[in-house]
Amino acid sequence: MINNKVAVITGASKGIGRKTAEVLANEGFKVVVNYNSSEAEAEKVKKNILDFNGEAEIFKADVGNYNEAKKLIEFCVERYGSIDVLINNAGISQIRLFTDIGTDEWNEMIRVNLNGIFNCTQNAVRHMIRNKQGKIINLSSIWGITGASCEVHYSTVKAGIIGFTKSLAKELGPSNIQVNCVAPGVIMTGMMGEFSEDEIEALKLSVPLQRLGTDDDVANVILFLSSDKSNYITGQVISPNGGMLV
């Protein structure tokens, strides 16, 4: 399948980012797999895509650093001639009592999760405006909607991503650029490593669908928002959460 669309996916060496890269590539997107420290995993993602005749490149960049984010976008445009879709997925998480959060931890959460989206988006938008089309998909969280105890810094940046999405959607609408947000519920990725089996079972019971989400559940929502089928959707928050938040 060939659709000639190009997508940059940040934090795409693992979890939701990895699955999204593979799902989009399988639908004909050319994908740039961004990673920061997990080069071996990024190479595996690229190999998986090439194995089913998809097209992919990998690029190392700390998106929390403006110059590195700029180089990521420039690499994509130089390699493929455009950037049609930007998926801001890179992020970190941490469980910590509010009174135990250090200023370094607070600042790092903002630098990676929020500044990273600003850095990548500002550089990508310049190309999208010129082409009068584009899609920006920002990964937030259910906790950005409702808040989570012991994750104040994480919930804060995820709520900020929602505000960023809604504001930018209004600003970029006249340029035919759609900006949307995906706010997953509890998804079984590496970020769940801190939870015990009993805690995971308790979480399942709090979900009406009686299971936790998978990276496929999220990647398929991102695929829809990346496609032409979502051309009249912008400024929205879609939350694949199994009914945990209704």
What does this structure look like?
This protein has helices at 15-26, 39-51, 66-80, 103-131, 142-146, 152-172, 197-205, 215-226; strands at 6-9, 30-35, 55-60, 85-88, 134-139, 177-182, 237-238. Helix 1 packs across helix 8, helix 3 packs parallel to helix 4 and helix 4 (103-131) packs parallel to helix 6. It has a 7-stranded parallel beta sheet with strand order 3-2-1-4-5-6-7, with helices on both faces. The protein has 8 helices and 7 strands, in the order E-H-E-H-E-H-E-H-E-H-H-E-H-H-E. It has one domain: 3-Layer(aba) Sandwich (Rossmann fold). Strand 2 (30-35), helix 2 (39-51) and strand 3 (55-60) form a beta-alpha-beta unit. The longest helix is centred in the middle third of the chain and has 29 residues, at 103-131. It is α/β, with parallel strands linked by helices. The mean pLDDT is 95. It starts with 5 loop residues before the first strand and ends in an 8-residue tail after the last strand.
